[in-house]
């Protein structure tokens, strides 16, 4: 698996393609007649290998291009931020829309080809590629979003200024050094994140702005790596291809550029989510449910998994596990943040009213000639979501895989939400690669592809 | 798993007798029955239809956005011709509340970093003709000020002081030298 290719390629170091199966996943790969035929044609195999190397280089080059150009600063795509990557700023040029979008398209195309060839990629090659992509983004500046500065601001409010981040927005610390970096739409907004996440961010607050920023980036990197490791594990347990699972998630353009690039706490949420799936597959239902609750105390969306898990198991253990974790969190949350710290429903309701230009409901509204979504549209969307979730609950009760049903639900939430951000399309991705119903993976990737297409207008007619 | 899962002894109601009292069609299962594939066909059809709808909406939005970008380019070109300043840092703002095509374009009146000098804002309306739009009114902003009514002064043209300029009185002080505003087509 990890050794040098045998067939005359002269490849030194990590091999590109797999050797005959050493695991259940490999056996499945090699049984495919198409690839078995390929092995009989060394020239075709060389082309496949060359294509894999080329796609790998494109992925790395596109990521480097974005990160090095972003390090120069002064770009509308890069939030104003403390200087953490000036050591690499002499190499690139200022990141413009055109360069960014071309790099994103090249990344996406290479990713798509690589997924098609995933069965021919060795474990080591996949791990090194995914690791390299994560590290390149980690050492660079914060990309695209100002959210990480909101995280730091909320932490500094609680630790440095003794202000409850659940009752005040960052405007309450207008003289704090982090304030100038908080997005203008969020200066008056109290935190919508769960108390567990807020507590996790507190130790970073006294370290100073730059150290806190690196801490946030490290948290996102480790959470992302943990999610990938658990995704790999779950795929193996379910006798699915772990290399494909790793590549789908870890080399995903939205995961790398937007999710990790922005150091979003969604990666911590997905870590708890995949831990829950992993516990569940090991038969540890109480721990699985507790893990879902822990994830929901980072970002409430992941609570959507719980009813499917409980319905599928039909045991007391997951209910007790969830209640135990919830009780513990309520006590801690209330003790530290008061009643507002445990009132996640209010935060969800507030966020549900937001509207972003990238959301599908907004696009549909434009399609029918409306300027945007109206309150009645919010109600219709909620109604549609309830119908979908109701159907999935019924299917789960009648034996459908609860993990797949949860993935469909997270995808439906992101598609029907009027506030869609790129990293929201990542929620269902790790679940989609550990279920046998491949329609979920196809649908998740299709939604992501549409999101990327929606970014392309500045490439067609640049403004300037 | 999916509704095509292989039938197995587990593809039956579970949990002993606890759920047996329920009618068969409502009893829980550990695994789905393989079925005829009809449900899968319906689900896939609905998914494809939803996907097509989202794809059409996405492409429609991209096309609309390219038209908006085309309009914004005409706005910028008009501002530069009107002021005679070929500045790069000129900002455009769309009418996101009224959803009209009336854009506001602001830029410095003298060379300097963005928003660090007195700014001239022009209201652009009408269709794009020969790559330009009509500037029918506007106002001034002091250095470092955002484009909010409280900061505006020297309203002219269709930008009536009562509607657009919170500092209409200050406008009486006159407009900055060398940039005397007048409406243009």
Tell me what you see in this structure.
The complex is a heterodimer of chains A (464) and B (185). Chain A has two domains: 1-141, no CATH class; 147-221 and 258-460, no CATH class. Chain A has 21 helices and no strands. Chain A has helices spanning 24-30, 33-39, 42-72, 97-116, 123-139, 147-159, 195-201, 209-237, 242-250, 253-260, 266-281, 285-296, 305-313, 316-337, 344-352, 360-367, 375-397, 402-416, 429-432, 438-454, 457-460. The longest helix of chain A has 31 residues, at 42-72. Chain A is globular. Chain A starts with 23 loop residues before the first helix and ends with a helix. Mean pLDDT of chain A is 90; it is low at 1-13 and 19-31. With 185 residues, chain B is an alpha+beta fold. Chain B has a domain at 63-173. Helix content of chain B is 27%, strand content 19%. Chain B contains two helices and five strands, in the order αβββββα. Chain B has helices spanning 38-83, 161-164; strands at residues 91-93, 103-108, 119-129, 132-141, 153-157. Chain B has a five-stranded antiparallel sheet. Residues 1-11 and 168-185 of chain B have low confidence and may be disordered. Chain A binds chain B through residues 311, 314, 360, 362-364, 366-367, 371-372, 395, 397-401, 404, 415, 435-437, 439, 443, 446-447, 450, 453-454, 456-458, 460-464, and chain B through 1-3, 5, 11, 14-15, 28-33, 43-44, 47, 51, 53-62, 64-66, 68-70, 72-73, 76, 88, 92, 99.
